[in-house]
């Protein structure tokens, strides 16, 4: 069995897909992998025709940036902080490979304690009911957890947290409208 060291996984330069993927992607974004559960035809259309960013997506991006603003730090500083801090929150690209197809993505946040991820945080904005999660949202978070484990992290005590917020409510009232669900 090949034991993977998470520190080496972070330092490794990820190589693009060796096999041919549809639309000649160098990797498959984890968010797009999960999006197939919502609407595979819409995803196919975006790749073949192109995609315009909607007003809802712009609002969601703005809210994400407000909630998860962070400073950029050196990779070695991240590795040292993950390994030695009692609690450390950060985010960085995660990846895994299946049948020579590379899947990559960046979760909204991960909280570590002494080298182990304890919370994987995904922040979802919706114009609908924030108390309902869609299958693609949970699959995306689970794929990030799978990537963490495949990169060599000990995920035995990992808790996935999906925070769902109504966009309009957040714009009007701020953070008190956030619904936090975890398992």
Describe this structure as you would to a colleague:
Keywords: Plasmid. The chain is of the alpha/beta class and 183 residues long. The protein has one domain (19-182): Lambda Exonuclease, Chain A, CATH 3.90.320. The protein contains six helices and eight strands; from the N terminus they run αβαααβββββαβαβ. It has helices spanning 6-11, 30-49, 55-67, 75-84, 135-150, 167-173, and strands at residues 28-29, 88-90, 94-98, 101-105, 109-113, 116-126, 159-166, 179-182. The chain has a five-stranded mixed sheet. α2 (30-49) crosses α5.
Question: What's this model, at a glance?
Answer:
Keywords: Plasmid. By secondary structure, the protein is α/β, with parallel strands linked by helices.
For the sheet with most strands, the description reads: 5 strands, mixed
Look up the CATH topology. Answer: Lambda Exonuclease, Chain A
Q: Can you list the strand order of the major beta sheet? A: 2-5-6-7-8
CATH architecture: Alpha-Beta Complex
What is the top-level CATH class?
Answer: Alpha Beta
InterPro entries: PDDEXK-like_dom_sf (IPR011604)
Keywords: Plasmid
